[in-house]
């Protein structure tokens, strides 16, 4: 049995990094794994988007997803219709499913705070999140997120 391939090591490091961010482990300067390309003396740079603010955003999104799923499980659909509202507007609908509606750690109360979309049928929803990662800038997550919501930002890495 030989050495693992570079792509396998990078994949494992990416998965570990994802779960570290999702669980809120590690600080903004934490490097979980460094890999070296075959024939290269320099380690690959650590992945971006793992600032403490982005870690909080990942945790907030997890809480919102859980509350929205519980709402749908009880009521048969997601809250809506809401065309592009701050998530704070979900407070009345989610009061039985979440203690407090989270706000972005940097952009609370601004246009860059977390936003929510759901069509009238309540079959889907989207959350729009701004990130510290300059490559992504902003991202979306949700259930059956429509491609036209928020001008097609990438899917969130968490």
Overview of this protein structure:
With 158 residues, the protein is of the alpha+beta class. It starts with 5 loop residues before the first helix and ends in a 15-residue tail after the last strand. It has helices at 6-23, 52-75, 91-94; strands at residues 82-86, 115-118, 125-130, 138-143. Residues 4-49 have low confidence and may be disordered. Helices cover 29% and strands 13% of the residues. The chain has two domains: 1-47, no CATH class; 52-151, Glycoprotein, Type 4 Pilin, CATH 3.30.700. A four-stranded antiparallel β-sheet has the order 1-2-3-4, covered by helices on one side. The protein contains three helices and four strands.
Distance between the termini: 34 Å
- Secondary-structure element series: HHEHEEE
Q: How would you state the average pLDDT, rounded?
A: 77
CATH class of the largest domain: Alpha Beta
Number of domains: 2
Report the sheet with the most strands, covering strand number, pairing sense and barrel closure: 4 strands, antiparallel
Q: Please give the share of residues in helix.
A: 25-40%
Report the uncertain regions: 4-49
Strand order of the largest sheet: 1-2-3-4
Using only C-alpha atoms, the radius of gyration works out to: 18 Å
CATH architecture of the largest domain: 2-Layer Sandwich
Number of strands: 4
CATH topology of the largest domain: Glycoprotein, Type 4 Pilin
What's this, in brief?
The chain is an alpha+beta fold and 158 residues long.
Question: How do the helices and strands line up, and which of them pair or pack?
Answer:
Layout: H1 6-23, H2 52-75, E1 82-86, H3 91-94, E2 115-118, E3 125-130, E4 138-143
Antiparallel strand pairs: 1-2, 2-3, 3-4
């Amino acid at each position: 049995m030989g050495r693992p391939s570079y792509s396998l090591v990078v994949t494992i490091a990416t998965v570990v990094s994802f779960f570290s961010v999702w669980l809120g482990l590690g600080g903004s300067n934490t490097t979980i794994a460094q890999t070296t390309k075959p024939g290269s003396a320099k380690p690959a740079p650590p992945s971006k988007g793992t600032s403490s603010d982005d870690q909080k955003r990942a945790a907030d999104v997890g809480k919102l997803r859980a509350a929205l799923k519980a709402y749908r499980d009880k009521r048969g659909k997601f809250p809506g219709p809401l065309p592009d509202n701050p998530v704070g507007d979900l407070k009345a609908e989610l009061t039985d499913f979440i203690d407090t509606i989270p706000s972005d750690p940097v952009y609370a109360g601004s246009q860059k705070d977390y936003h929510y979309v759901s069509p009238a049928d309540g079959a889907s929803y989207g959350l729009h999140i701004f990130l510290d990662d300059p490559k992504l800038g902003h991202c979306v997550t949700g259930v059956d997120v429509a491609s036209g919501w928020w001008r097609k930002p990438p899917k969130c890495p968490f």
